[in-house]
């Protein structure tokens, strides 16, 4: 059974009512969820599931199931699942601080894509850092990139999303910046994330609503990973 993905259209939503559809060794499935599953380089959400009787189950990660559309909410290894069963109503609540960090870093990587106009051949977005690997040979300057991100944050660009059909994406292949992660296909449509006047590309992750919400993000490291790969690592300049 596919899970309704509430996080796709509203990254601000931190909780939802849901019904358990399956409980197994692989994880717990719900009919709908605010939990983002690991994918596209972005880490999965963590949080809790809360039953009507007040019992709580800690969720330490979220992953995609083996079949398209299925999402697995992963309890901690060894968690007692007795009393948790299909058909039960629950409240699904994500870790708000973790989600906020993911949103801020993920949007910051879009700003970085605008500053470094080369294809991306690897990425990772976590609550503690974000990194992008660019397919390029030219050297990069840490201070110049940090200043560029700060400028785009301060300019307070709105961040919006919209859906296009797959045929429209095929007609505009230049929208795809990533060499390593392709937009999900098979549903007939693809989500575009637009940082107004700055960046436009397919992306399924969670983002802030305005670049001003990113806050102080700096380039913490530059690495030459290969002859044609330059890695940029981002971190928060202050408390997350």
Identify the CATH class of the largest domain: Alpha Beta
Structural class, by secondary structure, is alpha+beta
So, the CATH homologous superfamily of the largest domain?
A: Threonyl-trna Synthetase, Chain A, domain 2
Provide the helix percentage. 10-25%
In spatial order, strands of the major sheet run: 3-2-8-5-6-7
Intertermini distance: 36 Å
Q: Can you tell me the CATH architecture of the largest domain?
A: 2-Layer Sandwich
* Topology order in helix (H) and strand (E) letters: EEEEEEEEHEEHEHEEEE
| Percent of residues in β-strands | 35-45%
- Write down the domain tally: 2
Largest sheet, strands/sense/barrel: 6 strands, antiparallel
Count of alpha and pi helical runs: 3
Shape: globular
What would the average pLDDT be, to the nearest integer? 92
In CATH, the topology of the largest domain is named Threonyl-tRNA Synthetase, Chain A, domain 2
Query: Could you give the count of β-strands?
Result: 15
Low-confidence stretches: none
For the CA atoms, what is the radius of gyration?
Answer: 19 Å
Describe the fold and architecture:
The protein has three helices and 15 strands. The strands form four sheets. It has a six-stranded antiparallel beta sheet. The mean pLDDT is 92. By secondary structure, the protein is of the alpha+beta class.
């Amino acid at each position: 059974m596919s899970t309704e993905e509430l996080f796709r259209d509203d990254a601000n939503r931190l909780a939802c009512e849901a019904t358990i559809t399956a409980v197994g060794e692989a994880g717990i499935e719900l009919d709908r969820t605010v939990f983002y599953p690991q994918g596209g380089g972005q880490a999965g959400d963590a949080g809790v599931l809360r039953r009507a009787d007040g019992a709580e189950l800690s969720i330490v990660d979220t992953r995609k199931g083996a079949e398209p559309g299925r999402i697995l909410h992963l309890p901690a290894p060894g968690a007692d699942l007795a009393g948790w069963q299909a058909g039960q109503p629950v409240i699904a609540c994500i870790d708000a601080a973790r989600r906020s960090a993911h949103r801020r870093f993920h949007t910051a990587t879009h700003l970085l894509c605008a500053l470094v106009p080369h294809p991306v051949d690897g990425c990772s977005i976590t609550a503690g850092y974000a990194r992008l690997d660019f397919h390029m040979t030219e050297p990069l300057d840490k201070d110049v990139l940090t200043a560029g991100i700060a400028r785009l944050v301060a300019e307070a660009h709105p961040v919006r999303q919209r859906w296009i059909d797959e045929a429209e994406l095929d007609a505009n292949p230049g929208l795809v910046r990533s060499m390593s992660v392709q937009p999900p296909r098979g549903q007939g449509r693809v989500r575009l994330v637009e940082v107004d006047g700055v960046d436009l590309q397919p992306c399924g992750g969670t983002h802030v609503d305005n670049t001003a919400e990113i806050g102080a993000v700096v380039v913490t490291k530059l690495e030459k990973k290969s002859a044609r790969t330059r890695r940029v690592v981002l971190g928060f300049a202050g408390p997350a």
